[in-house]
Amino acid sequence: MIAIDWGGSSLRAYRLDSEGGVLERRRGNEGALACNGRFGRVLGALIGDWDDPLVVMAGMVGARGGWIEVPYVQCPADLGALAAGMLRLDASRESPALAKRTLWCVPGMADRSMPAGDVMRGEETQIAGLVDLLGKGAHTLCLPGTHSKWVQVRDGAIAHLSTAMTGELYALLRSHSILGRGMPEGEPAFDTGAFDAGLACSRDPGGGLLHDLFGVRTALLFGRFQPQALASYLSGMLVGHELQAALAGFAGPVHLVGSETLVERYAHALQERGVGVHRHPEELAATGMFRLARARGLA
Amino acid sequence: MIAIDWGGSSLRAYRLDSEGGVLERRRGNEGALACNGRFGRVLGALIGDWDDPLVVMAGMVGARGGWIEVPYVQCPADLGALAAGMLRLDASRESPALAKRTLWCVPGMADRSMPAGDVMRGEETQIAGLVDLLGKGAHTLCLPGTHSKWVQVRDGAIAHLSTAMTGELYALLRSHSILGRGMPEGEPAFDTGAFDAGLACSRDPGGGLLHDLFGVRTALLFGRFQPQALASYLSGMLVGHELQAALAGFAGPVHLVGSETLVERYAHALQERGVGVHRHPEELAATGMFRLARARGLA
Q1: Beta-sheet strand order (sheet of B254-258)
Q2: Both A10 and A92 in a single domain?
Q3: Between chains, do A176 and B176 touch, taking CB under 8 Å as contact?
Q4: Is the same domain home to A7 and A107?
Q5: Is A151 among the domain residues?
Q6: Same-domain pairing of A10 and A119
Q7: Which residues, in sequence order, are bridge partners of residue A254?
Q8: A296 inside domain
Q9: For testing the chain B interface, which of A165, A217, A241 should be mutated: the one with the most B CBs within 10 Å?
Q10: Total domain count for chain A?
Q11: Contact at CB, A221 and B147, closer than 8 angstroms
Q12: Is the CB of A222 inside 8 Å of chain B's CB atoms?
């Protein structure tokens, strides 16, 4: 089968063997938010020369405004419940390269246990690739990113999820706030000392994030850090506040899933707090789609 | 004398009588960040037909990158200490309308009692207009805005200050984040129910601001509020988190200084928490400049 991890700003294709092993991988240029409805043509061009008849997709491609809106499956849900929420779509008219193929899309997940509720789309598929490895019992997962997801897995089911807008706020504050004005253009080298100072700041009682953020401004005014260290200070402050809330009353360990850079940064922050860490690669999505296809009886 | 309240994006002139009462008021169009160094010409054009020889200015006009950089005075400082930090500038060459006048600029204040430190510029002058009214003892002031200031006044001295980036974050999230995408253009009517739901959300233990913010997104996805109520929900969440941190272990009352709209919003949020409120008008800056001029022996 072919597994398609199609996020808002990324597109990755995996050709899998009959046991879910990755035979080949490719990247496309057009994320689900950027391809302006030309989903069939973009996908056809990317995988046209692979002859596998089954295609499973996950991520923002299945969101409202994506190719097909696949309704959220509610927490708690195991692989069977998640697979039961998959929807099939017919794309034979959109691209000749997709004719004679069967396309499926994985649902996102919603947690309505809190008044505000919470959602994810894409991360549930990465987690589906990990649950067998986790086994029985309760496990805490963190998938850091633009919208970091904290997920509780219990006995193979996704039980609870919580989002933190850490990555989006970091980007916003750098690009558009008074805090970014003192920072050099471009992503500067990571500064461990400044990152750690940001982490420490987030553990000070009483200040709160809205106050602590202004400390990036005063750090510049008072020359506490070099301008090129300010982004790391801001990053440590935001990651620290994310952890402060997510770890309340919780001793770990945490399973980290994501890009190597982000996983390293979060692992460091967690270890600073004495919390144990397991690292997992981002590419779990392909395994997750294979597991879901099998749970649905397709692979 | 003439009092000039010259902030980053606003310019207000007050003509005062010999006891500090306001005889006349005017607004200019060019804030200190917008006037590109033409400070003398802008001021000369605004007050040229007022013949008072003494001009006292406060706000971002005295910041680095303003007309004259007036160094921060350290906390704690009473009116005398603040007045001693005022700097005189000679603008006779910049505008004929300013020749034969004496111009002074009020300093900002810095608090170095915490590792990150904190600063304000402009608010110290509003507070200088209020301290006589407050009298002896300890008082807590809140000046809500782009950067809200929480200030402790003890026996007539400004003892401690703390900034919260509430207003800037509200504007950023509305204009540039995923949360703003679901909101109608322009500032919608205030929705008390949604604002109160945001306040309540900020008092829930465990979530943290980075998590709670994503609730504005899910509120749209789940149809919890009408799109035109989302900005009020976001506002309540941010103000609530500001108060949650600022009021830790504190029972009130709070002296609120600011625009009527913001003061009403904060008063409502404080009263929801059972905290008493005193309201003061924004125009305190003119009184503050008069008091400081008198403390310096100028008026």
Answers
A1: B157-164, B148-154, B138-143, B254-258, B277-281
A2: yes
A3: yes
A4: yes
A5: no
A6: yes
A7: A140, A277
A8: no
A9: A165
A10: 2
A11: no
A12: yes
Tens of pLDDT, residues A172-219:
999 999 999 889 988 889 999 999 999 999 998 778 999 999 999 999
Which residues of A are less than 8 Å from B166 in CB distance? 210
pLDDT digits (tens, 9 = 90+) for A132-171: 999 999 999 999 999 999 999 999 999 999 999 999 999 9
Q: Distance between CA A190 and CA A187 in Å, rounded?
A: 9
Asked, for residue A148, whether it belongs to a domain, the answer is no
3-state secondary structure of A171: helix
One domain, residues A62 and A127 = yes
CA distance, residue B118 to nearest chain A CA (Å): 6
Distance from CA of A42 to the nearest CA of B (A): 25
Domain extent for A274: 166-281
Residues A191, A107 share a domain: no
pLDDT of residue A234: 98
Is residue A287, in this structure, part of any structural domain at all?
no
Tokens representing residue B90 in the block: 């000679």
CATH number at residue A232: 3.30.420.310
Domain with residue A27: its CATH number is 3.30.420.300
CA distance B291 to A258: 58
Show the tokens assigned to B236: 């309540």
Q: How far is CA A100 from CA A25, A39, A97, A103, in A?
A: 22, 17, 8, 10
Verify that A90 and A207 share a domain, yes or no: no
